[in-house]
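Changelog note: in this version the structure field was regenerated for every chain. One regenerated record is shown below for reference.
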Amino acid sequence: MASKNNSTFSVLGSDLSIKGDIKASADLHIDGDVDGDISCTSLVQGESSTVTGAVEAETARLAGTVEGSITARELVILKTAKITGDVFYDALTIEQGAQVEGRFAHRDPKRNTKQSAPEAEAKPELQLAN
């Protein structure tokens, strides 16, 4: 039996087509089609795969088609990837030839902490007069 300390992964083969959200505590390799949101630790997407929905992962390596937003700490977009949607990342690598239609936004982990909230409140806001 695998314990939580051992790395495990799940594979969705190219012959699978899934409608619905996927949440995996393990690493996920997708070669088939998914119509729904995906949340996992690590995602590897094959060239022939299509995902229609949001993707959220610690690390993601995308080679297929994604129609939806992507949020990842470490994101690699391979040259065969076709992405339509906004991309939120901490570290980003894009191969030449990849197609992305959407906005890129670097995530700042420091902004999400409550310690920085008092600093944000102390800064004066700029207001424009009409």
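Spot check on this record: The chain is about 5% helix and 50% strand. Residues 117-122 form the longest helix (6 residues).
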